[in-house]
Amino acid sequence: MELRDVGRRYGVRGRWVLKDVALRVPRGTLLRIEGGNGSGKSTLLRLLAGIDAPSAGRITGRPRTAYVPERFPAALPLTALGYLTRLGRVHGLGRRAADRAARDWLERFDAGRYARTPLRELSKGTAQKVAVAQGLVGAPELLVLDEAWTGLDGASRRVLDRAVLERVAGGGAVVFVDHDPRRLAGECGAVHRVEGGRLVDGSAGPRVRTERVRVEAEGTGPLPERLPGDPARERLTGAVRLTVATADSDALLHALLTTAPPWHIRSVTAVPAPEEPHR
């Protein structure tokens, strides 16, 4: 798959969110996309997945693709098993094979007991498991993951890590965005960064070290007194800003998303570590 001089803007006179993007996605590769909030990372992933069409340039050679969005539309009038089976059929599986694959992925994510549960009745964490499973059920040739690990428990994150590596080992390509800089570290064939609407090679030059993550969230209920990592708290208008060690960020997000009622995550930002003094 190849992107040539691709640009994307919303509206005829809207600003360019992305411009002059050139990117090759070979088979059997794992690509990480980085960038600040609002930089265009999600727009790039939607272009790769075919959800959005480019406003300029060309995308050629797109293989059979699955996309896991940052937010899963869990209000669909289907059960977890029914939804996954339909997605398997979309990817060309027969009815029995689709049913078998759907049940297998639910079991792998420890969600088999929710097979007959309507999507709208699932908890946030279980709905995210279904969201990830729908991207894997058809063994796509290109898997696009937009913050897919957010909201998963630790065991499920490890299942997804293994599933990504299995797809790559099987000749598929995976492109992902994740707030944790350690995610699949050392496994990526390339790291690219979106800056100023343009794609740059993130593997060239020094990488920014991150020791903390800043989470902005809003909710209608009380914020739990005890949160993973004991984050620093800062009250905002209608929201709260939590700063926590990177190692505790996944657990913090899971706690916010699974509290009752769940908190909505506005943004997740890596906080650069202070530069070491020159000697």
TrEMBL record:
InterPro entries found in the cross-reference section: AAA+_ATPase, ABC_transporter-like_ATP-bd, ABC_Transporter_VariousFunc, P-loop_NTPase
UniProt entry tagged with the keyword Transport: yes
Domain of life (superkingdom): Bacteria
UniProt keyword Transport present: yes
A Pfam family this chain is assigned to: ABC_tran
Transmembrane segments: none
Gene Ontology molecular function terms on file: ATP binding; ATP hydrolysis activity
Native source organism of the sequence: Streptomyces mobaraensis
Domain called ABC transporter: residue spans: 1-221
Keywords assigned: ATP-binding, Nucleotide-binding, Transport
Name of the featured protein: ABC transporter ATP-binding protein
